[in-house]
């Protein structure tokens, strides 16, 4: 009787792993003219699972003071930080590809967040990894205890290109 009970418990425990549904992540959608996820050989799930690299967290505060980063600007602008992190990882993976911005140029949408670039004076561009660096500042400086986040910061080394991470409805 005891053997049958233990066998049943082991059988149920093994079924639990089989029956667990895989985690579904929102789709990461590159902005117009940006490389696709397939071109980068990366999936939306991978971008969500990457998180933010620890070694870059401290460096995110080392931005040029040509622009003062801002959080918000309003309650409706806030969205889930994990969606912003997925866009950060997308932009970081683009490396030295040029991210071109005019006025409110969408660079990435993930879940309920989008990251867009704006040029303060006409058009501008920066390496996408440098735009990601500005997004990382927003993640580190503007994430609230409830894991919502919104804000804007200049791309690393370019005070004319402002990376903004906000709710898609903002």
TrEMBL record:
Residues 1-20 form the signal peptide. This is Uncharacterized protein. It comes from the Eukaryota. Keywords: Signal.
């Amino acid at each position: 009787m005891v053997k049958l009970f233990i066998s049943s418990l082991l059988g149920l425990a093994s079924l639990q792993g089989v029956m667990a549904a895989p985690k579904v992540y929102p789709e990461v959608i590159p902005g117009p003219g940006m490389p696709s996820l397939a071109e980068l050989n990366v999936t939306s799930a991978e971008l969500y699972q990457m998180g933010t690299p620890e070694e870059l967290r401290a460096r995110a505060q080392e931005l040029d003071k040509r622009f003062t980063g801002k959080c918000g600007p309003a309650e409706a602008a806030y969205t889930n930080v994990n969606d912003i992190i997925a866009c950060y990882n997308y932009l970081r993976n683009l490396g030295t590809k040029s991210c071109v911005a005019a006025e409110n140029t969408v660079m990435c949408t993930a879940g309920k967040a989008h990251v867009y670039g704006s040029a303060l004076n006409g058009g501008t561009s920066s390496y996408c990894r440098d735009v990601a660096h500005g997004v990382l500042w927003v993640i580190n400086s503007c994430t609230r205890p409830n894991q919502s986040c919104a804000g804007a910061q200049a791309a690393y080394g370019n005070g004319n290109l402002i990376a903004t991470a906000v709710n898609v409805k903002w």
